[in-house]
Design a protein that fits this description.
Distance between the termini: 20 Å
CATH class of one domain: Mainly Alpha
Order of helices and strands: HHHHEEHHEE
Strand content: 5-15%
CATH superfamily of one domain: Winged helix-like DNA-binding domain superfamily/Winged helix DNA-binding domain
Shape: globular
Number of helices: 6
Largest sheet: 2 strands, antiparallel
Helix content: 25-40%
Structural class: alpha+beta
CATH topology of one domain: Arc Repressor Mutant, subunit A
CATH architecture of one domain: Orthogonal Bundle
């Protein structure tokens, strides 16, 4: 079967974009990763409207990517700060990949605005993708997709007949030929 024969609405990328596919959501996550956790601090650092920030934070809490943790300054009412959950922390490679791509393709002539280094050894941080056997998956590496247990055929597609060429796994190019 071809990739186009599968229902794209059940794709994990599509479902993730439903949660993360907005500029402010990714920037809020970036700031929380970098230790900016309080509403007023996020609002000031990002320059985001308070109502927009409140909606993004509520959505991230609802999706289980951050949690609200109460704190109280002496003499003040209880407020909340936002902390990454395990699911939120698992987005680190996604944000690092966006940073790396942006440094290569979107920074100005002066160079990247920030560089990341491993705190323990001092080496620069970079994102790598490898298969389970340890082979590096580069921008031109061809991948093969097989239907997972949650896959569905797109409306109007018919199941492939066993043994036919269309019953073979879809080859998913990661770049144009």
């Amino acid at each position: 079967m071809k990739w186009a024969d599968y229902d794209s609405t059940v794709c994990s990328v599509a479902r993730t974009v439903e949660v993360l596919g907005d500029r402010w959501t990714l920037l809020v996550l970036r700031d929380v990763f970098n230790g900016i956790r309080r509403f007023a601090d996020l609002s000031a650092h990002l320059g985001i409207a308070r109502d927009v920030l409140a909606k993004r934070l509520a959505a991230l809490v609802e999706e289980g990517l951050i949690s609200r943790v109460p704190y109280q300054e002496p003499g003040a009412r209880t407020r909340y700060e936002y902390r990454l959950t395990d699911a939120g922390r698992e987005l680190r490679p996604v944000l690092l990949a966006l940073l790396e791509w942006g440094d290569r393709h979107r920074c100005d002539a002066a160079g990247p605005p920030a560089q990341l280094f491993h705190a323990e050894c001092g080496a620069p941080v970079r994102v790598e993708v490898r298969c389970a056997e340890g082979h590096e998956i580069g921008p031109r590496t061809r991948l093969t997709a097989k239907p997972g247990p949650g896959s569905r055929l797109a409306p109007g597609s018919r199941p492939a007949q066993p043994g036919s060429r269309s019953a073979q796994p879809a080859t998913v190019p990661t770049s144009s030929p």
